[in-house]
Amino acid sequence: MDAKEVARPCASLSLVDEENAATWLGDDLWNVVDKKLGLRLVGKVWTNKHVNREAFRATIPKIWWTMQEVQVEVIQENIFVFHFKKRDDRQRVLTGGPWGFDRGLLVLEEPVGSGDLNRGVV
């Protein structure tokens, strides 16, 4: 099979509806994305030194005393994403601060959409 034979059936495929507007994947997919973002927080530890990532990942969930486990994902130096299993835990952490770690202030923010986390974290 050559490239023209493969391309011919694909030529009729389109992501455009009858009015020639791009078709999105659907509200159901956006609801899933909103739900997942709704269970996350992005945080940055404001300090002049590098945070011990493993100590941070082990300590912060214990300080927060959440009802269910919180996973801490390291994004880059002093920037983390927190994955909650319950909205109540997330909301309590977000509003219960200020939080700190090793003499640095932990600034938390709700993620919105996609993009560069460096630009979104103060």
From TrEMBL:
It comes from Xanthoceras sorbifolium. The lineage of its organism: Eukaryota, Viridiplantae, Streptophyta, Embryophyta, Tracheophyta. Pfam families: DUF4283. Residues 36-109 form the DUF4283 domain. It comes from the Eukaryota. InterPro entries: DUF4283 (IPR025558). This is DUF4283 domain-containing protein.
